[in-house]
Amino acid sequence: MSKKILVVLTNTAKYPTLNRATGLWLGEAVHFVDKVQQSGFTVDYVSPTGGYVPVDPHSLQMAPELDWQYYDDKTFMNRLGTTLSPGQAKADEYCAIFYTGGHGVMWDFPDNAPLQELARKIYENNGVVAAVCHGVVGLLNIKLSDNRLLLKGLQVTGFSNTEENLAELDKVVPFLTENELGARGGMYSKHDDPWKPFVITDDRLITGQNPASTSDLAQKVLEVLEALAKKKNLTA
Q: What number is the average pLDDT over the span 62-86?
């Protein structure tokens, strides 16, 4: 089994209707990448149009030390400036795809057909599809080979309506993540307490509710990949 994971990041630097910066929620990349790399996996970064990925300045407020270590790492930041476009990524090289969040993804993840095709191929090749927070909107329109929506009938979580309301952006975003997950047939659930870590694993689909869920989600991805590798070895 491949030891490479594809990490999906936004190219959206500004809210279309608001004079406010957005972009990648840095910790949602950092806490995933750090954990999987420590376990021997390598990562590639891809974005809807390729190239530069902006970092949401709000994600640096009260950021933990690990985030600052990555922010100060020129190699890491240069990779955020030179991400692959979907056409440059080959699905058969990856055992998993992971969608990071930040509000920017609301505008450039849901309707990106090349990203959807990458995820479909990885999933149908017995790989893992994972997403955290707003990143789950990248899953909304993924269709499998039988034309069935990936989310239909599967347990899922993502940024809740309550959290969007508390962030005071519920009137700014083009839609509410929780509502759309349910509209696609996803069986949505969330933590009773906003901002607490919450991760759901449904076979090879793994989703996290909010930024605080990223590290736990990475651990679940590693556990599922380990189980898949053992199963493959047993049947080889």
A: 98
Give the three-state DSSP class for 104.
coil
Dihedral in degrees, nearest 10, Cα atoms 61, 63, 67, 72: 50
Indicate the SS3 state at residue 19: coil
Q: Cβ-count burial of 7 within 10 angstroms (0-12 exposed, 13-18 middle, 19+ buried)?
A: buried
**Tens digits of per-residue pLDDT, 10-57?**
999 999 999 999 999 999 999 999 999 999 999 999 999 999 999 999
* pTM for this entry: 0.98
Query: Total structural domains in the chain?
Result: 1
pLDDT tens per residue, range 198-220: 999 999 999 999 999 999 999 99
Q: Which residues contact 202 (CB under 8 A, 6 or more apart)?
A: 154, 155, 156
Contacts of 173 (CB under 8 A, 6+ apart): 103, 106, 164
Asked if 11 and 5 count as a contact pair (C-beta separation under 8 A), the reply is: no
Q: 140 forms bridges with which residues in the sheet?
A: none
Tell the residue number behind the tokens 């995820």, with chain if given.
Answer: 119
CATH number of the domain enclosing 221: 3.40.50.880
The answer to whether 11 touches 51, Cβ cutoff 8 Å, is yes
Domain coverage including residue 95: 4-235
Distance from C-alpha of 50 to C-alpha of 33, rounded to nearest angstrom: 19
Q: Are 125 and 99 in contact (CB under 8 A)?
A: no
217/200 Cα distance (integer angstroms): 8
Helix 26-38 to helix 214-235 angle (10° resolution) is: 40
Closest CA to 152 of 160, 161, 140: 140
